[in-house]
Amino acid sequence: MISFERKNRIMAVLAILVFLIYWILAFILFPYLPEQFPIHFDLSGNHTRMVDKTWGNWLLTPLILTITAAILVTLMLRFVSIGMEHYNFSFKNEVLKLEPVQKKPFEQALRGFLKFAMWTTALYLFLTGILLRLNVLIYIQQIDTVPIFVLFLALTFVYLAIIFLEYKLIKTTFRKHLDSHYQ
Questions:
Q1: 149 and 45 in contact (C-beta within 8 Å)?
Q2: For the segment 86-135, what is each residue's pLDDT rounded down to a tens digit?
Q3: With contact defined as beta carbons under 8 Å apart, do 129 and 61 qualify?
Q4: Which domain holds residue 29?
C-alpha cells in the first residue's frame, strides 16, 4: 500500500502539472479563436451564450478556477492542522479515548487523507477547466464527438470513487487498529 505522503506528492505534482497545462493551453489557443466564441453550453452541447474574443473573456474561467483552487488549498491546509477532536468521523469517540501516543498514527493518517482529498479536488477542478476549453474547441472546429457533459460526468464519477475508496480504506485500517487495541 502506498503511503499518504507519496500519494499526496503524486497528487500535488499532477494537480500542478494539469494547472500549468491548463494555463499554457489558454495562451496557445487564444489566437485560434474566432471573433466570437461560446462560453456557456446546455446539457446537449449547444451553445447558449457567445462572447467577443478578448483576453478577459477567454481567461476568466481559468482565473476563477485558479482562485477557487488556491482558496481550497489554503483552507484545507489550515483545516488539516487543527486537532483531531474537531473532525467528524464515525469512530471518533473511540480514537479520542486512546492515549496520545496511540492517537498519533490515527491523526497522521487522517491528516494524510485530508491532504489527499485536497490535492485530488484541485486536480479535479483543473481537469474540469480543460474539459470546458475542449468544449469550446469542439464547437469551433464543429467536431461531432461525445458531449463534454458525458466526459464531465465520467470525470466526476472517477473523482468521487477515488475519494470514497480512499476513505473506506482508511476507515477499514482504523477499525482494524482499534479492534486490535481493545482486544
A1: yes
A2: 777 777 788 888 888 888 888 888 888 888 888 888 888 888 888 888 77
A3: yes
A4: 4-182
Q: Could you give the count of Cα atoms lying within 13 Å of 41 in the half-sphere of its Cβ? A: 21
Which secondary structure element, helix H or strand E, spans residue 79, and what is its range? helix 55-80
With bands split at pLDDT 50, 70 and 90, how would you rate the model's confidence at 41? confident
The CA-CA-CA angle for residues 105, 116, 69, to 5°, reads: 140
Residue 141 confidence class, pLDDT cut points 50, 70, 90: confident
The C-alpha cell 477499514 sits at 172
45: left (phi over 0), alpha (psi -120 to 50) or beta: left
Burial-class residue 135 by CB neighbours within 10 Å (0-12, 13-18, 19+): buried
Residue pointed to by grid coordinates 476513505: 167
3-state helix, strand, coil in the chain (%, to 5): 75, 5, 15
pLDDT recorded at residue 53 = 92
Whole-angstrom distance, CA of residue 32 vs CA of residue 47 = 18
- Count of structural domains, the chain: 1
Instruction: Decide: residue 30, CB within 10 A, 0-12 exposed, 13-18 middle, 19+ buried.
Output: middle
Q: Does 1 score more than 90 pLDDT?
A: no
43 alpha-carbon distance from chain centroid: 22
- What does pTM read for this prediction? 0.75
